[in-house]
Design goal:
six-stranded mixed β-sheet, Cytochrome p450, alpha+beta, about 10% strand, about 400 residues, binds protoporphyrin IX containing FE
Length: about 400
């Protein structure tokens, strides 16, 4: 089935009514103008993620590979698994991320809040959430010669090139600068760590024996590029979304403030409902049938995580934010082999980054309209607030 009308601009402006219509009427559809198949029901997205032999991450063309070089998200098993298993430990609770979240993150947030407290008003997305997010990744990776602003600019440059669907040379140039500068920053760290090692993620990558062979310099650089391009926008959007949801809903705010252990559930439910990462993109390795529709071999297919997370077939009243859901997990961090490597760290950034604001800023309230934008990456562009300083 084809949808000849649907455009990216429509999806970016207001995706949910479109996705609801597709789930109901055309759950597997070729969006002609996007030259992409869209898969919108939970079961079908889960099937995509569970069958990498049918839905390959090694797509051709690949904007991700072009912008960053070959990395784990542009490969299938066993190569993808080799890289992920080798690089994951510092991003879990038992690694660098665990000590960072416990010993550094709350003070990092408080220090940023101290910087604007007296002003009585701020935009919580930028610089606050952006700074929490970029600093966290910078510290866990161990890019200690760079500032968070620098890491943020690399993220922006790489993302511009990843989304450079119309081959704009200006965006390629931005991506190239970020690519080269980040590679040299990593080289400097590699040289220093070869003399004195530490507990950071890059040090771990240098020391790890990845299924019988060390990681190469190129593997480390390309995958750190993937982390910088993918691991900063989402926690930033997550902090913005959690704060917005609480500020816009007095009853929910009261419930969470009176029972702080609900904060983690709130983060989880906001991730489901607002799914800051819209899709996973794969390519069919053969003709595949999903929900009665045949997708040809070699087709690019977007499994729409946002839509799977809103599927009435899995979630009761899916558009309602409900801290007491019992239906099971959601797909905001994806489901299969390529499920997010930074999920644990990202959840801590969002929980602590939002919780510190409500703990520190008295009578915190919205000070303007909030506009959500984006499809692939969706979050508030800004979140203007006031408090009684
Ligand atoms: C907290 C918000 C975050 C969200 C919602 C999120 C979401 C996702 C999703 C949906 C994927 C799967 C992409 C696909 O299959 O095509 C993914 C993969 C990935 N994420 Fe995250 N992410 C977040 C934070 C982070 C952070 C903080 C890092 C830092 C390292 C990170 C690093 C990665 C990497 C390296 C992959 C590729 C994993 C693989 O190919 O196996 N993410 N993320």
């Amino acid at each position: 089935m084809n949808d000849d009308e649907l455009t990216l601009a429509q999806l970016e402006a207001d995706p949910d009514p479109i996705l609801a219509r597709l789930r109901e009427q055309a759950p597997v559809v070729h969006a002609t103008q996007l030259n992409l198949w869209l898969v919108t029901r939970w079961d079908d997205v889960a099937t995509m993620d569970a069958h990498p032999e049918l839905f390959s991450a090694a797509t051709e063309p690949s904007f991700l590979r072009r912008a960053l070089g070959v990395n784990m998200l542009t490969l299938d098993a066993p190569e993808a698994a080799r890289l992920k298993n080798a690089m994951m430990p510092p991003f879990q609770r038992s690694g660098k991320s665990g000590t960072f979240a416990e010993e550094v993150l709350p003070q990092l947030c408080d220090g940023l809040i101290d910087g604007f407290y007296e002003e009585g008003q701020a935009d919580l997305v930028s610089p606050y959430a952006a700074a929490v997010s970029a600093s966290s990744l910078q510290i866990v990776l161990g890019l200690s010669d760079s500032t968070w602003e620098q890491v943020w600019r690399w993220c922006e440059g790489l993302c511009a090139d990843i989304a450079n669907f119309d081959n704009d040379p200006a965006k390629t140039a931005l991506g190239d600068v970020a690519k080269v500068e980040l590679a040299s920053a990593i080289d400097v760290r590699i040289e220093a760590l070869q003399k004195v090692s530490n507990d950071t993620a890059i040090a771990h990558m240098l020391s790890v024996d990845a299924s019988g062979s060390p990681l190469t310099r190129e593997e480390i650089i390309n995958n750190v590029r993937l982390m910088v391009s993918g691991g900063i926008n989402e926690p930033r959007d997550g902090i913005g979304l959690v704060c917005w949801v609480l500020l816009a809903n007095g009853e929910l705010r009261e419930e969470v403030m009176s029972s702080p252990k609900l904060w983690r559930r709130l983060v989880d439910e906001v991730m489901r409902l607002h799914s800051p990462v819209g899709t996973i993109t794969r390519q069919t390795t053969q003709e595949v049938e999903l929900s009665g529709t045949t997708i040809p071999e070699g087709a690019l297919v977007a499994g729409v995580l946002r839509s799977a997370n809103h599927d009435e077939r899995r979630f009761r009243e899916p558009m309602k934010l409900d801290l007491h859901r019992t239906e099971g997990g959601h797909a905001a961090f994806a489901l299969g082999q390529h499920r997010c490597l930074g999920e644990w760290l990202g959840r801590q950034e969002i929980a602590v980054g939002s919780e510190r604001l409500f703990a520190r800023l008295p009578n915190l309230r919205l000070a303007g309209d909030v506009e959500l934008h984006g499809f692939e990456f969706r979050g508030p562009r800004s979140l203007r607030v006031k408090w009684d300083a």
